[in-house]
Amino acid sequence: MVKNIELNNGVMIPQIGFGTYKSTDSDGYGVISDALRAGYRHLDTAALYKNEEDVGRAIMECNIPREELFITSKLARYSLGYENAKREFDITMKKLGLKYLDMYLIHWPRPDYGDPEFDDWKRLDIDTWRAFEELYEEGRIRAIGVSNFLVHHLENLLEHAKVVPAVNQLELHPGYLQEDTVTFCEDNNIALEAWSPIGRARLLHDPLLNRIAEKYEVSVAEICLSFDIQSGFIILPKSTHVERMKENLAVGQVILEDEDMELIRLMPQTGWSGEHPDRERVAI
Ligand code: A2P
Hints:
By secondary structure, the protein is of the alpha/beta class. Helix content is 39%, strand content 15%.
C-alpha cells in the first residue's frame, strides 16, 4: 500500500509515482496503461516528454475514478514567462483531457544554455510563478511547485512568491543527494520529489549497494528506492517492464538500518545524469 504525503497546502500525494520520461518513447499509451494496471495512481509527465496525449488517453480508458489519480505535468524551460505559462498550461490540459491538474511544476529554472533569455532567469521565474499562482487560485491546479531548482533559484522565487512551492523535484538517489538544496527545502516546508531514483540504472552495479542488497536479500533497485523513501522523498521510478513496475511500487517493506542509511549517505558521488540547471549538459 503506497503511503500518502501531505503537501504544505494540505493536498495529499502518493509517495510513489510513475516517471514517464523516456519510459514512454516506444509505446506511451501501452506503458502508462500497464503502470495504472500495476497499481500506480500517481503519474508524472511533462510537456517536454511529448507523452501528455498518451497519458490522457490511458487515464480516460482506465476506468479509475479521477479523484483516485494524482497527475503532475511540467512547463518546459523554453516556455518560461507569464503569457507562455498560461498558454502552455491550456495546451497541456487539452492534451491530457483533464478538467483540473493535481500538480504543475516549472520544469527547469532557466532556459537552455545558449538561449538569448538564459541570463534573464530571475525575471522569467517570477513572471512564470505569477501565472502559476493565478491558475492555482482559480482552482485549475491543486498544487504548484518547481523542479531542478537549486538554493539560489528558490531564494529568488520565495522573495516574490505569494504561494510557497509545494514540491521541488530533483535528481536524488544514492550517490547524488544534493544536500544543500534538500536542507533548504526541508527548512521551508517544500516536499522533495526524486527523479531517476535508481540513477538511470547505473547504480545497479555499485559494489556498496550490491553488498547492502545481499544483506537484506533484495535487489539493488529496492535498496535505492528504500533509501529515498526513508529519506522522506516522493519517488518517481520508471520502467517499461510490468514486473519491475510492480517491484518498484512494492518497496517500503525493507527498513534499512541507520548504519546502512549512513553508509549510503556517505558513498562517493555516482550515477549522476549530467544535467544541471545552470550549465550546458555535462558529458559523463
Ligand atoms: P527498464 O525500463 O528496462 O525496466 P531511473 O528511474 O533511475 O532513471 O532508472 C530507469 C532505468 O532503470 C530504466 O532503464 C529501467 O529499465 C531501469 N529499472 C527500473 N526499475 C528497475 C528495477 N526494479 N530493476 C532493474 N532495473 C530497473
